[in-house]
## 1
Amino acid sequence: MKTFVPKKDDIEKKWWVVDAEGRILGRLATEVATLLRGKNKPQFVTFLDTGDFVIVINAEKVSVTGKKLAQKKYYSHSQYPGGLRTDVLQDLLAKKPEEVIKKAVWGMIPKNKLGRAVYKKLKVYRGPEHPHQAQNPQEYKF
């Protein structure tokens, strides 16, 4: 018996549209990360990019549970003294809702060369419109 390892040419990439309206942020991010990595496909291998392209629309209408809107914080540091910046989820959703979904998905994929390649296939848009009609994306049903 031999283990099947797909070649780069054998991997078929699809485009999916995921509607974030009314979806819980973490649950949405896990589904998107699974599609991006290709873990839902039978030819999945850990060392190749077997995943699909994902378009997330209505990012501003994503929901969270509990008191996360007021209590969840995102930290970034400029590497200078006193350079710590803190953003609360509620403010970040108002200013850049795309970043909230991108950060949640980034936390669920590997932090290496393959993870960065997978992350580039994620497209997130604030409203229901997106410029990827030419790729004939399919609606993803949860």
## 2
Amino acid sequence: MIDVKNAPYAALGLRVSLGVLFLAHAGLKIFVFTPAGTAGFFGSLGLPGFLAYLTIVAEVAGGIALIAGFMTRWVSLALIPILAGAIIFVHAGNGWLFSNEGGGWEFPAFWAAALVIQSLLGDGAHAVGAPKFLTDTKTA
């Protein structure tokens, strides 16, 4: 049974938590590793360095959009490839547990699952939603 009184607030809590996580990871790439250092790391994985910059932009924009509740379903789905990339290119070889050396794929997989759940839940409470022209179903 779904508690319709509390479900919007549960979606809000999940949405804001996911958004803050993305901003924190973008901040790590910007302020600790630096964008150039992150691009170098991507290059060491055999990925084009420009993907690092796209990842940082996606994490910042996606994090802000999730916190605001802007097009939550689509933003949640759009961020999943970042976590899939983290699993495939960084964490898969380190085993399951994130406490393993180099961090296993447990946490990014859980994070991706949470994004799928958020996409199913929708915006939740206190969301800006989507622009009216994207949600208006009336035809002329």
## 3
Amino acid sequence: MNMNNRNKKIIQTSIIGILGNLLLVTIKAILGFIMNSIAIILDAVNNLSDALSSVITIIGTKLAGKKANKKHPLGYGRIEYLTTSLIAFIVLYAGVTAMIDSIKSIINPEETNYLIVGIVIIAVAVLIKVALGLFFRKRGKKYNSDSLTASGTDALFDAIISLSTVLTAVIYLIFKINLEAYLGVIISIFILKSGIEILLETLSNLLGKRPEKELCDAIKELALSFDGVYGVYDLFIHNYGPDSYYVSFHVEVEDDLSSSKIDEMTRMITEKIYANMHIIVTSIGVYAVNLHDEETKNLYLNIKEEVEKFEYVESFHGFHFNKENKVVTFDIVISFDCPNIKEEYNHILQVIQEKFSDYKIIIIRDIDISD
């Protein structure tokens, strides 16, 4: 995806959100004060926070779109995660404020004067907010923008809030029971829940979460499409913002390939992945294997069988046998479900060394984020 076009669409979407929310803020604030309705006033404040979120999204997108330079050679894409965090804090602030005001209204209730025309207008506002929410979420997924997706989710919550306000008004008009303040507490809980979820998701991106399996599988599939590549391992994906990935991995090839052939192959793999996925491959390591020799093949199968008996071993690869020195080297990936990975690694090494005491066993522990 063209990043300039992506950023342009995100900004356009955010401007629509600002205009729509400011219109709703004006209408709801006027009606809220006329009818002395805390729920409607809180709803207006919520829409104002949405407009502010869209402003922050525009600023974040502009900053994230800055070109890479000497100071930040991998670009500014992660700024979008920071702006999404700001949106989360705005949502949380709105939730806390709504909770405080609602509790005050429970303690000191005030008379509410609902108007039929006002209720109808709020009902129409619900439809507008649903349309905005779905629009934002659709654009957020299409352009891989956490900020837009977060704003869309928040907008749909706002629609529920507005609908609850309408229902509360109807109940008051029919049964003369005022549930506004209690509704405000429920509204604030939903707002806080939404803010916490947005914040946790953003923090997960900043910390470096496991990428989607589909993305990992697609990268491996492209590398495996080349003749002579028998396996792809040790995949690492570094995320520097939405749709900004840098990748490294190992390929398993025959040990008799010349350095010239390996160089040609890795360059072609790099080019194909970039052409198909717009992902930069920073490095491709090589595992040289020789399974044509009977002694090497039998040793490989025997060791593989023993290693895979261990519950937490997820992958066995990179096998290499130095006949002259009787040194066996291979890599394993130990599951994160293992209670103590270090102890498990030492135990595996000890057991395999004892069972194959005629050889010097070297085991390298790998991490493959695609497993």
## 4
Amino acid sequence: MRIGFLGKGGSGKTTIAAGYINYLTGLNKHVLAFDADVNVHLGATLGMQVKDIASWFPKIVRELDPNRPGANMFIGTTPPTLATHFITPTANDEFIKKYATQKENISLITIGTYDGQRAGSACYHSMLGVAEFIGSRLLDSQNSRVVLDMTAGIDSIGTGMHFIADLNIFVVEATKKSIDVYLDFKEKTKNLNLKTLVVINQSEGIHDETFVQKYITANEIIAVFGKSQNIKAFEQGENAAFARFVAEHANSFAYIETELSKLNKDWDEYYKKLLKTYQNNCHEWYNGFYGCDLTELVDKDFSYTKVLANHA
């Protein structure tokens, strides 16, 4: 199952995502983590080395879809085919071993950020294409855990990343600006059938919680993280303080895990969203760019049901 962490820039979504990852490893679960934020802080928070993969997108396409028609005309939301090489979210998967960095029970894929060549000329959405592409070729199960640290704000709505997770966790602080970002996301995705819940971060007590509940209903809020001196100590260089932060808020992380565990994987719904987004991408831009109708390259016999039967 996949869980994505979102929030206004500076809300603490990377901290909460990293804390949840550490909580899961404490339960002896393997976690496949994606840093899909332009600021690329997840690896440092987890104490892991990183390697950016955005520039390897063409190579990854050739590896995962070597026999796909129109292999040179690919975009992030290009759906898989029955001939696609699929990925399992395990430390021993060949794709994971090649493109992720690993530490204990964590495998980390880092999309990357701007370099000197792309600065001023590239949109981060184009770099996220590799994450979209990998996501549709990743066969996670009910018991597996895939954690995504997403772009700040509501930027994911402009890409296929908005539906990549089974559960979205929106991190809000007790400020109107932070709350407004969530309300904007909620309004713009109200017809997209997304499962999104809220955690309050850096709460200083009941006053902050009451303030947030003026705008966000109680049944949307699943956990509250208090303002933590351990995070301050961690950011000042005391690495051991992060483990204390996770222990300090173990109940909140347990609530998040419980909510994810309640959900059932719906591959048909995921493919429906993927196909619709791909078709929209093609008609709005990429058909004109490539000079052909890319939707004709869709494998009409494809379904995740067939793929999963072959990987059972």
